Amino acid sequence: YQDEIKERPRVATLIGALANYTNLSQGAKEHENEEQGKTKQMEAVKMSTIMGVYLPCVQNILGVILFVRLTWIVGLAGIMESFFIVLLCCVTTLLTSISMSAIATNGVVPAGGSYFMISRALGPEFGGAVGILFYLGTTFASSMYILGAVEILLNYIAPIMTLFGPFTGPENRAALLNNFRVYGTCFLVLMSTLVFVGVKYVNKFASLFLACVVISILSIYAGVIESAFGPKTTELCFIGNRLLKLSGDMRCEKFYNTTVGNDTILVSRISNFMLTFITVHAILKLQLKHMNSTIYNTYCTTGMVGNATQLICDPYFAANDLQQLKGVPGIASNVHKDNSFAHYLRVGAPITTDRLKDNPAADVQPPELGTGYRTWLVADVSSSFTILLAIFFPSVTGIMAGSNRSGDLADAQRSIPKGTIGAVLTTAFIYLSSVVFFGTVVDGALLRDKFGDSIGNELIVSIIAWPSKWVVLIGAFLSTVGAGLQSLTGAPRLLQAIAKDNIIPFLKVFGRGKLNGDPTWALLLTCFISLIGIIIADLDVVAPIITMFFLMCYMFVNLACALQTLLNTPNWRPRFKFYHWTLSFVGMVMCITLMFISSWYYALVALVIAAGIYKYIEYCGAEKEWGDGLRGLQLTTARYALLRLESRPPHTKNWRPQLLVLLKVDENLQPKHPQMLSFAQQLKAGKGLTIVSSVLQGNYLDSYPEAQAAEQELKKAMEANKVKGFQQVLVSQDVSQGLSSIIQTSGLGGLRHNTVMFGWPHGWRQNPDPKNYKVFLDAIRASSACHNAILVPKNISNFPSRNDKLEQGTIDVWWVVHDGGLLMLLPFLLRQNKKRTLPYIHCNTQVWKNCKTRIFTVAQLEDNSIQMKKDLAVFLYHLRIDAEIEVIEMQDSDISAYTYERTLMMEQRTQILQHLNLSKRESQREVIQRSRSVRFYSPNKTASETDQYTTESPRVAPTDGEDTDSLTNQTTEPPSDMDQSQMTWTPGKHLMTKASTSASGTRSGFGNLLDIVPQSTNVRRMHTAVKLNEVIVNKSHAAQLVILNLPGPPKGSNESREANYMEFLEVLTEGLDRVLMVRGGGREVITIYS
Question: Which residues lie within the region annotated Disordered (predicted)?
Answer without folding.
Answer: 938-984
